[in-house]
Amino acid sequence: MSRSYPIWNNVTACKYKSDKSFGFVETGGIKIKIGSSAKNSHHFLETLITKREGKYKNVPVWIFKYSVDDVVVKISVFTDNNGRPGEHWFTKSKLTAIKSLKLEK
């Protein structure tokens, strides 16, 4: 049985034989820890995606925001369709400004 969520995550991991997926209604966060085990893991980053009503150029819209460690890196704006996201207007991303992250040797 499938549910309808405005925010949907497809997860691929080596421990699963197939993709796993889950959805959110308004806000979804993921805390990622790294290390060598469950007991030896440390905070690495936190992601958050939100869906909120708003206005853009005086028009009712739905705004989806994706942030990493409280920094908004991408937004998408949809028209309002009777209280639900409608037509996709545009997406803006700060990620295009990041060419690459390289470690110095």
Describe this structure in words.
This protein has 105 residues and is mainly β. 0% of the residues lie in helices and 61% in strands. The strands form two sheets. The protein has a five-stranded antiparallel beta sheet with strand order 3-4-5-6-7, with no helix packed on it. It has a two-stranded antiparallel sheet with strand order 1-2. A hairpin with a 2-residue loop joins β5 and β6 (71-80). The model has no long low-confidence stretch (mean pLDDT 88).
- Fraction of residues in β-strands: over 45%
> Could you describe the largest sheet, including whether it forms a barrel?
5 strands, antiparallel
Low-pLDDT ranges: none
Inertia-based shape? globular
How many structural domains does the protein architecture include? Answer: 1
Give the N-to-C terminal Cα separation.
50 Å
Radius of gyration: 17 Å
Spatial strand order of the main sheet: 3-4-5-6-7
Helix-strand pattern: EEEEEEE
Key phrases:
105 residues; mainly beta; five-stranded antiparallel sheet; two-stranded antiparallel ribbon
